[in-house]
């Protein structure tokens, strides 16, 4: 366990807020977004459902003064992997988004990468291990 810096907690909270908005939009508006972005509805809905759980986890982490360092590192690595996977999806040929869809995938990949970086910096600014 580590003492979470204010910077880390704010980075986690920002991630939770934006992920929560995306979760609701993709879960309940998958059909509309699928048509808008020319992306598979099932991909968007399942992404939204995953983000509901992710939002709960990251929101919970943001609310704690002390955090398991390994769990925060998992979030950072997960965000970095999401960024890479999002761009790889565009090059894979598995989907054929229109220009708006490509822009959305790239924009959310960049945002997720920024969250990973901010959370990593926040982790480095956090205090030493909590002792019992």
UniProtKB/TrEMBL annotation:
The chain crosses the membrane at residues 12-37, 43-63, 70-91, 103-123. Keywords: Membrane, Transmembrane, Transmembrane helix. It comes from the Bacteria. This is Integral membrane protein. It comes from Bradyrhizobium neotropicale.
